[in-house]
Amino acid sequence: MNLSITDIKKCAKESRSCEVRLKLRLFTLVLKGSCVEDACVRLGVTPSYYYFWLNRFKKFKFRSKSLLKLSRRPKQSPMRKSHWIVYWVKFYRIEKHYGAERIQAYLRLDHNISISIATVNRILKRQGLIGKRKRLPSKKHLKRYELSIAGERMQLDVKYLPYRIKGRQYYVYNIIDKASRWSYKRAFDSFGPLCNTKMFLYDVLRHCPFPIQLIQTDNGVEFTNKFISQPIYSEPREHAMDRWCQENNVRHKLNPVGEKELNGCVERNHRIDDVEFYSFHQAKSHDELNLMLKRWVEEHNSIRRYKPLGWRSPNQWLMEQSLWFLIYLKVKFNLNENLTDESYALAA
Length: 348
Prior knowledge:
Blueprint: H1 5-14, H2 18-31, H3 36-43, H4 47-59, H5 83-96, H6 100-110, H7 117-126, E1 154-160, E2 171-177, E3 183-188, H8 193-207, E4 214-217, H9 240-247, E5 251-254, H10 264-278, H11 286-302, H12 314-333, H13 341-347
Parallel strand pairs: 1-4, 4-5
Antiparallel strand pairs: 1-2, 2-3
Helix pairs in contact: 1-2, 2-3, 5-6, 6-7, 12-13
């Protein structure tokens, strides 16, 4: 198939691209009798450039689009992650609402997949699962600390249930250990020091796997009478929680007024509950709510991992700490407990 001036004029009408018009002008000069070398020198290109585009022009039957440069982008990047990795990243983001760092840890520990946090972020961004992060204002309390003894400091707070059950508001008591992140929750239809606070504390004492040394709370009326002029429910000036703490040899510490960041561990646990529990489950009765909370607490303490614990669950961390303590007692006091090799392996 030979190229003609008619084909060139037709293509010139279809496209106004400077790139296409340069090649059409080159073809026109050659058709009008100019030597290929002279025409190429005149337009500042090489003869190989002329023959390359002429062959492509003929191959696609003199269509103007054939004179445009095609993308050199590879159809599939050699560094692109497999569909299996993308599936698990999407699963942890959609089903669990995990962030990039937590997703990376779960992929490494549960699926033996090692990828960087930046790669997880790129996958999430490509799938449209994350957007731009809002810049949060700087906080007053920037100092972070970690405790090494379970029960050394536990934080207690009450959370309003995000929804109503049969038109009634419920309240969730939540206590969490600063060292091990072990937590316990229970819902009540009201909150107050006479019944619910004491009942919850006795439940905590019964379920907690370690001795409690200190409980830290805010200044709510369910925890202290410090900021009320008259004791509620005609109870004595001493608060019911203070009496419970004295009976069980537990110290009670109040935060300064307006400094809720000092209770940051339990506040962060409230947010975890909102994102990973309340957004997926909605109870229809008080008993069903407490049953669902019981299952969630078991999952939280046994399965959910925490970065400060070396990506271990609270129960795993407590078990390792108890084994190390037994080994320490045996070495220091030469006790006769029979610690097996499996115990040493678990502690390691």
